[in-house]
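In the current project phase, the collection of sequences with tokenised folds has grown. One resulting record follows, to show the layout:
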Amino acid sequence: MSGEQELGITESKEHSPGEWYAEVVRKAGLADYAPMGGFIVTRPRGYALWERLQDHLDGWFKETGVDNAYFPLFIPESYLEREKDIVEGFDPEVAWVTHGGHDELEERLAVRPTSESIIAPFMAEWVRSYRDLPLRLNQWCSVVRWEATETKPFFRTKEFLWQEGHTAHATSEDAWEETMTRLGQYERLYEEVMAIPGMTGRKPEHDKFPGAHTTTTIEALMPDGKSVQAGTSHHLGTSFAEAFDITYTDEDEDERIAHTTSWGLSWRALGALIMTHSDDQGLVIPPALAPTQVVVVPIWQADTEDEVKEYAAGLAADLDEQFRVELDDRDERNPGFKFNEHELNGIPLRIEIGPNEVEDGEATLVHRPDGESEVADADSIVESVEEALETVYAKLYAAAEENLEENIREAHGRGEILGTIGQHGGYVKTGWCGDEECETAIKDEIAAEIVMLPLDEDEEPVHDTCGICEEEAVETAYFAKSY
């Protein structure tokens, strides 16, 4: 196989999205499969995306009073069992350590599937009075959930990177405000940084985080019609505080139970990013996340090499203070190969410099999403590149927004719901009576489930009756297939 063939994407996003996705991840240098089934190796370019995403989110957390910490990877079984809902909710997914070296451990250690049961006991120690509240902690780490069988890099792996925030508050109202603050930050990340519109809502009772009072979610619709649970923020109420004795004395010296939250976003966000924007030429990355935002490619012949390279280098230097810039002046690769390589790697903006640009004091700017080109004056190149990157973001967001808006449909009646999801995918909203069995009737038939309910529990349902059983509807349910 030649270099050019190996470089290009051979699968179709439209016709074989699974194979296409795996090829983009591999050929764009984001990840490789590990020797153990269900695990991946994250390559430098893929990890750079995670780092940039992390930088945005971590900055917003700290601006709103969150402190980073780190807790052990292993959780004693007795700690996990103190919150019975956690144990029941994660039991099939927990990986256990039974030996240290050759010695059997006195107590099994769980490889953390989530950290409430190891963090909550320390929150109980650190909170004494109302003056210690709110307590806001976050950790960036990995977790292990053993249920994954079919690996899809970033979307579904046995080990994945994420952040998990854990907070304690004096009142339920304060905890709810915290829950919504974090959900809002996840929505901001998707919309402002990743150029993906999200839908915010809450999970039905049977799909809440184990032990939670309310689980809120942001859902993102992929081009193949499936929904991604893009981030969750949980109002835990007092269940964890009661289990782990997180109490405080109020201003009257009375002992009160704290109200806690937890919230997390994983590298599934990277899967959503790749799936949403990328195309049959390779990876597409919004400017805010791109490790390299601009690549300058000089195009020369023997008699123009020196002046073209010098001009291109000067232009790259002018841009370097404000943007992440690469100057690609490799001799061993022709311009066509370079263009294909940079498109495959998802660099948002390419600047082409040939003898004509040098003579006219200009630069040709090519947008990654659609190949649209524009000519800019070298004297105003910084402003032109800034505008071009804003345009690239706007194009990506508009395409994702159009996909979302065109794929929210109403349906009523079991046959209509099944037919709509089966034919179109996307979200189908219908009235729901609140009975899990009505979801199961759809789920068993077509592997679609209720991914979201409106945040406002008092919102009038879209239909008066349940779309499945025809009993009185208590709220609107959004059904979709999901990753």
